[in-house]
């Protein structure tokens, strides 16, 4: 453990991660413009996000191997180089196929950023200061993706979509230059061998699940490509897990789940990811589709929540060091449950600033939960298991976010269809359907809006129940101290002190 953390080096890693995370969400609002320019279908243009996500799903589980095998300097330089090449290629991409390829090259670099940065901080900071360090990491992790849609909305309204990549590239190259000059090696390395069959199984497993659940909203759950890829993914993942448990040196070590607080942290993180993604998807849907607010103004509505979440992360980190995860998680989840419930009671004309306040307070609650719980779980692992712990957390967040989004969107759609039919039947029974064509079109539009509102409200109600389940699980959190002796961590014995919060 370093006496004095290498702040300059960590700042370079932070900036690189910020640029990569920001880029992840920049493109979403630009998809319709890109679709029109290249004359592709909505299902095709989605590959710009689906392809990016798939590469993440393949690379992140393998990151435990990369972090152990290669030095942090070499890994970061490689990741940033790949990200820069992908960004440059996207700027000049003459065809849609080449743009998708560019995004996948970007993803191969950015997928390694989060696991690498988390491992560097776990090594660089002593246990009593990890909360503050991870809080600063949360500043990057939560703020960058949340600022993306607002920034993207403004740029797409005033400039070409290629500007999104043109802005990112200079910062990526600058980070690469500084990293080449200043970056040093601090993470321990071991001469691990890559099990190619494990890599293939994890790629098919996580990739299949991510693709299947992400495609469900567009193609429907009864589409063979959806249930087929989910089934193949699930079988491959089960085979992968069994193989890892039987291997002496696994690619991704599932034995870390013998540490109870890490296991609990994983379960809570999965549940929270579903609840968090629901707000990020359903709120813009309500604002734009029901209220008819522009994409840029929708981004502005969500911006204070993003800023609050970012600013709170370092504060939450310090509070974690002082009080532990339990009190923070319970407080944060009580706020999250209450605000999510109020979001399930939206009306056709709920006020813009009321929505902004509700969403901001919800994000404030969530800022107190995710990072403390993850850090508390990682604190129980011996040093040699850190790469596996960070890889596992990041993979589960990706997969649970995709699965949660797909399920909640399906719930919203089914409820919307049922509500629409019910409203139409009521109107037919009461004889309130207008005969005039213009009036009929307006009437049908009103029914669609009411049905969508009912679907969104019902989905938020389900998200409230999910957040309540996470709140119940936090009651079992205990504050952990790290293993006293790293050399005995290879034994089945868990040398971890566990004390009540």
Give a short summary of the structure.
The protein has 501 residues and is mainly α. The chain is 77% helix and 1% strand. The chain folds into 3 domains: 1-192, Growth Hormone, Chain: A (Up-down Bundle); 195-250; 257-501, Growth Hormone, Chain: A (Up-down Bundle), CATH 1.20.1250.20.
Question: Keywords, please?
Answer:
two-stranded antiparallel sheet, 501 residues, Growth Hormone, Chain: A, 1% strand, 18 helices, mainly alpha, globular, 3 domains, disordered C terminus
What is the fold's blueprint, element by element?
Blueprint: H1 7-26, H2 31-38, H3 42-45, H4 47-69, H5 72-92, H6 96-110, H7 113-124, H8 130-158, H9 163-182, H10 196-219, H11 224-246, H12 260-290, H13 295-323, H14 325-343, H15 352-367, H16 370-379, H17 386-430, H18 437-474, E1 479-480, E2 498-499
Helix pairs in contact: 1-6, 1-7, 1-8, 1-9, 4-6, 4-10, 4-17, 5-6, 5-9, 7-8, 7-17, 8-13, 8-16, 10-11, 10-17, 12-16, 12-17, 12-18, 13-14, 13-15, 14-15, 14-16, 14-18, 17-18
InterPro entries: EmrB-like, MFS, MFS_dom, MFS_trans_sf
Domain Major facilitator superfamily (MFS) profile: 9-481
Transmembrane segments: 12-35, 47-68, 75-99, 105-125, 137-155, 161-181, 193-213, 225-242, 262-287, 293-315, 327-346, 352-374, 458-477
Describe this structure in words.
It is a multi-pass membrane protein. It comes from Sporosarcina thermotolerans. Keywords: Cell membrane, Membrane, Transmembrane, Transmembrane helix, Transport. The chain is mainly α and 501 residues long. It folds into three domains: 192 residues, Growth Hormone, Chain: A; 56 residues; 245 residues, Growth Hormone, Chain: A. The chain is 77% helix and 1% strand. The chain has 18 helices and two strands. Helix 1 runs antiparallel to helix 6, helix 7 packs antiparallel against helix 8 and helix 13 packs parallel to helix 15. The protein starts with 6 loop residues before the first helix and ends with a strand.
């Amino acid at each position: 453990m370093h006496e004095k953390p290498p702040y300059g080096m960590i700042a370079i890693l932070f900036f690189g991660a910020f640029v990569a995370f920001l880029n992840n969400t920049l493109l979403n609002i630009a998809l319709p413009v890109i679709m029109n320019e290249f004359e592709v279908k909505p299902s095709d243009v989605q590959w710009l996000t689906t392809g990016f996500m798939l590469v993440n799903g393949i690379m992140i589980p393998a990151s435990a191997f990369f972090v152990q095998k290669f030095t942090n300097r070499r890994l970061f330089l490689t990741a940033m180089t790949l990200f820069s090449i992908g960004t440059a290629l996207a700027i000049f991409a003459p065809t849609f196929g080449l743009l998708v390829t560019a995004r996948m090259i970007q993803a191969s670099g950015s997928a390694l950023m989060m696991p690498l940065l988390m491992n560097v901080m776990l090594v660089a900071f002593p246990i009593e200061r990890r909360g503050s360090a991870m809080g600063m990491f949360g500043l990057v992790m939560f703020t960058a993706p949340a600022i993306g849609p607002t920034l993207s909305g403004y740029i797409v309204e005033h400039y070409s979509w290629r500007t999104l990549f043109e802005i990112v590239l200079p910062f990526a190259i600058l980070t690469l230059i500084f990293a080449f000059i200043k970056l040093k090696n601090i993470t321990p390395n071991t001469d691990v061998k890559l099990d190619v069959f494990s890599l293939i199984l994890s790629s098919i497993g996580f990739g299949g699940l991510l693709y299947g659940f992400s495609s469900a909203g567009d193609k429907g759950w009864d589409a063979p490509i959806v249930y087929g890829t989910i089934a193949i993914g699930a079988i491959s993942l089960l085979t992968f897990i069994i193989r890892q448990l039987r291997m002496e040196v696994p690619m991704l070590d599932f034995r870390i789940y013998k540490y109870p607080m890490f296991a609990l942290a994983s379960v809570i993180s999965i549940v929270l990811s579903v609840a968090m993604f629901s707000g990020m998807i359903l709120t813009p849907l309500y604002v734009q589709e029901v209220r008819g607010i522009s994409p840029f103004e929708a981004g502005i509505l969500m911006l204070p929540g993003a800023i609050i979440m970012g600013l709170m992360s370092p504060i939450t980190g310090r509070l974690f060091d002082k009080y532990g995860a339990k009190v923070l998680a319970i407080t944060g989840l009580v706020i999250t449950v209450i605000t999510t419930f109020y979001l399930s009671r939206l009306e056709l004309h709920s006020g813009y600033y009321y929505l902004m306040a509700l969403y901001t307070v919800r994000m404030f609650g969530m800022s107190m939960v995710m990072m403390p719980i993850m850090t508390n779980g990682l604190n129980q692992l011996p040093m040699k298991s850190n790469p596996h712990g960070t890889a596992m957390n990041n993979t589960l967040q990706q997969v649970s976010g995709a699965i949660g989004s797909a399920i909640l969107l399906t719930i919203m759609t089914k409820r919307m269809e049922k509500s629409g039919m019910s409203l139409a039947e009521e109107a037919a029974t009461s004889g309130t359907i207008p005969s005039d064509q213009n009036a009929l079109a307006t009437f049908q539009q009103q029914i669609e809006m009411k049905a969508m509102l009912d679907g969104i409200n019902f989905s938020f109600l389900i998200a409230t129940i999910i957040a309540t389940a996470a709140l119940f699980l936090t009651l079992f959190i205990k504050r952990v101290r790290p293993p006293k002796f790293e050399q005995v961590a290879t034994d089945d014995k868990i040398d971890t002190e566990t004390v009540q919060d």
